[in-house]
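Please fill in the sequence for the structure shown.

STRUCTURE ENCODING:
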């Protein structure tokens, strides 16, 4: 008759077999290579995506910088033309000649004729603002301090779609072209006037006993906005303090 194992021995064999199988499964390294390849592939993809992003961003920034520099150069050209206009001090005949010389730039002075001296205002010395004469549009801004303006726009905002928000507009460049908008927003009066050719000993210092009067020139705060005619987002703005 075949002998039978006690129940406790059978249970011990079952437990030992189960533990050995579990231990064998834990130590089994099948498939670990695939997991490592997937992890390394994910890391490589992240690095490649980062490099592509940096290259793309760098290219975009370079393009933006190039477009800004082009618009900035147009704005600098517009600034120089604005300086020439300021130097005319609103003289009607010289201003007409100047506009004729730059006719190819299609210049347009847009300051409204309602920009005139304020008859109720006075200079710091008590003179009425109308003492220097009657001015209209841009000549008012060029010859009188801001406190003497009436009906003149002196905000720093330039809206290309509203002509009354800038004093002058002209076009520069060839392929692409840029619209230049300039505006005087503040004038501080000095004791110098427009250049009349009176320099050196023609007026002052005619003898050794005369004392030269210190010149305090006019100060103009000017806003300049340069925009690509085909892409208004491509623009450059300048805030300028110009001493005449």
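FILLED IN BY: designer on duty
SEQUENCE:
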């Amino acid at each position: 008759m075949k002998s039978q194992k006690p129940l406790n021995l059978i249970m011990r064999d079952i437990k030992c077999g189960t533990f050995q199988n579990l231990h064998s499964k834990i130590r089994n390294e099948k498939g670990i290579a695939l997991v490592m390849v997937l992890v390394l592939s994910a890391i490589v993809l992240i690095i490649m995506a980062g490099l592509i992003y940096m290259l793309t961003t760098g290219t975009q920034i370079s393009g933006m910088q190039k477009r800004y520099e082009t618009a900035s150069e147009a704005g600098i050209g517009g600034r120089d033309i604005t300086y020439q206009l300021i130097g005319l001090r609103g003289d009607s005949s010289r201003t007409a000649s100047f506009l004729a010389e730059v006719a190819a730039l299609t210049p347009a002075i847009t300051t409204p004729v309602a920009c005139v001296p304020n008859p109720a205002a006075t200079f710091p010395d008590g003179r009425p603002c109308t003492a220097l004469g009657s001015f209209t549009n841009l000549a008012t801004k060029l010859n009188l301090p801001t406190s003497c303006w009436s009906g003149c726009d002196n905000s720093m905002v330039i809206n290309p779609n509203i002509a009354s928000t800038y004093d002058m507009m002209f076009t520069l460049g060839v392929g692409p072209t840029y619209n230049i908008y300039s505006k005087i927003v503040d004038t501080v009066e000095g004791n110098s006037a427009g250049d009349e050719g009176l320099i050196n000993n023609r007026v002052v210092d005619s003898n050794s006993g005369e004392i030269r009067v210190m010149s305090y020139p006019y100060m103009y705060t000017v806003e300049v906005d340069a925009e690509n005619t085909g892409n208004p987002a491509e623009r450059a703005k300048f805030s300028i303090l110009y001493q005449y």
